[in-house]
Design a protein that fits this description.
Layout (H helix, E strand, L loop, with lengths): L9 H5 L12 H5 L5 H22 L12 H14 L2 H18 L4 E3 L6 H9 L4 E4 L25 E4 L2 H10 L7 E3 L3 H6 L6 H11 L7 E6 L4 H14 L7 E6 L9 H13 L5 E5 L4 H7 L2 E4 L4 H8 L3 E4 L10 H4 L3 E3 L2 H13 L5 H11 L5 H14 L8
Parallel strand pairs: 1-2, 2-3, 3-4, 5-6, 5-8, 6-7, 8-9, 9-10
Helix pairs in contact: 3-4, 3-5, 5-6, 9-12
């Protein structure tokens, strides 16, 4: 990279305090920008909006809203949303990423969330650079980043996709267009870390609980949240349905998603709900920056609303409760697999908490079957490294290599 920037010392300025050579997020703007990038990005987004509008008109069917056809309003809303979305910036960064890749000429582009970085996938394809991706979170049958119904040569799919388990391979080969030969089942690199947490012993568990302010006699219920539309729709409704009842002896620890804003939403919801109902305030801690697996190992139970942490809790061995206050809460069949117990209201939550606190709550056979289907056992990081090195050493790395 130093040679590409004309300054051999560039890596030194880009290194993190740990010494890791990390590319900062603004590298494209600082080193690979041209004056017309922004205008070009906006023009491309506007052209896409026009194309969408034209297609919508050609395919238009009435959208009955009683006495009003809502179809034209829907199309107009979509077109406006495109202009206000991140698309102009993505088209801008597509140009910059292509310059970066052309200058550096890496052996491959490695992404951990490729469906949110499609500008990078597109740039790599234009430069003839293979794209490698590792599964990000759970994959469910409605996942817009992974499940695509119709093949399209322009779709920015990775050349190599490392999956956590056979469940994901089956899903993508039966419900999506990702080429089967590009998929490799390797396990989850995150679980390489999680596997050590239960072995840390009671000292680590007690340290986490003290850090969170959990009294020795209290039970710790970890609650995982998410961001985006579910934060505004599912989370408030679920918390209102579940957390207005008897929480005596329970300390709630809300683990917020890394992308959530620090705006106090969850504390306001829980405190306001209980005050309105006239019940005692909950013992509550809201935290974002914490080792998730250490938290799960320290928790007596986990309550998931709309979060991949449900799967992580199975891996760690923490009893799972699943809010089923919305139709889409159970994304991959946790309840059917027997690795989560559904709760619909505050009374059910209390009953299930008491059951968990009274003794072993997890069917180990069902847990083992779930893990075997969703996570290839063993070290995922080593598998990825070995496969990736061998693949890139082949004459023409591609999905079938």
């Amino acid at each position: 990279l130093g040679s590409a920037l004309g300054d051999p010392s560039s890596w030194g300025r880009l290194s993190a305090p740990s010494g890791a050579r990390s590319l900062p997020g603004d590298i494209l703007a600082r080193a690979f920008a041209e004056p017309d990038d922004g205008a070009a990005g906006r023009a491309q987004a506007e052209a896409m909006a026009r194309d969408v509008a034209e297609i919508a008109v050609q395919l238009a069917a009435p959208l009955d809203g009683g006495d009003v056809d809502l179809g034209p309003r829907l199309v107009a809303g979509i077109v406006r949303a495109i202009g206000r979305s991140s698309l102009p910036g993505r088209f801008r960064d597509l140009r910059r990423a292509r310059r970066f890749l052309a200058a550096v000429r890496p052996a491959a582009l490695f992404l951990i969330n490729e469906y949110s970085r499609t500008e990078w996938v597109g740039a790599a394809r234009m430069e003839g650079i293979p794209v490698v991706a590792v599964q990000h979170g759970i994959i469910h049958r409605h996942h817009p980043g992974y499940v695509h119904g119709l093949p399209d040569p322009a779709m920015p799919l990775p050349d190599r996709l490392y999956l956590f388990g056979e469940y994901e391979r089956r899903l993508l080969t039966t419900r999506s267009v990702q080429p089967a030969e590009s998929l490799r089942v390797v396990g989850s690199p995150r679980l390489d870390v999680a596997a050590t947490k239960r072995a840390d012993g009671t000292d680590a568990r007690d340290a986490i609980r003290r850090e969170l302010g959990v009294a020795p006699a209290d039970r710790l219920l970890a609650i995982s949240t998410t961001f985006g539309p579910p934060r505004a729709i599912y989370t408030p409704a679920s918390l209102a349905a579940l957390l207005g009842g008897d929480l005596a002896g329970v300390h709630l620890v809300v683990k917020t998603h890394p992308n959530e804003p620090d705006d106090g939403l969850h504390a306001r919801l829980i405190d306001g709900l209980r005050a309105t109902l006239g019940v005692p305030p909950a013992r509550l801690t809201v935290i974002q920056a914490i080792d998730l697996y250490a938290l799960l190992a320290a928790a007596d139970a986990h309550l998931g609303i709309f979060s991949t942490v449900l799967t992580e809790a199975v891996a760690v061995g923490t009893p799972n409760l699943l809010a089923v206050t919305q139709a889409t809460n159970d994304l991959i069949g946790y309840v059917e697999a027997g690795v989560a117990v559904p709760v619909r209201d505050a009374a059910e939550l209390r009953i299930e908490l008491d059951r968990i606190f009274a003794g072993p709550a997890t069917d180990q056979d069902k847990r083992a079957a779930f893990l075997a289907d969703h996570f290839e056992p063993g070290g995922a990081s080593a598998r990825i490294r070995e496969d990736l090195v061998a693949w890139l050493a082949s004459p023409t790395p591609s999905g079938d290599g």
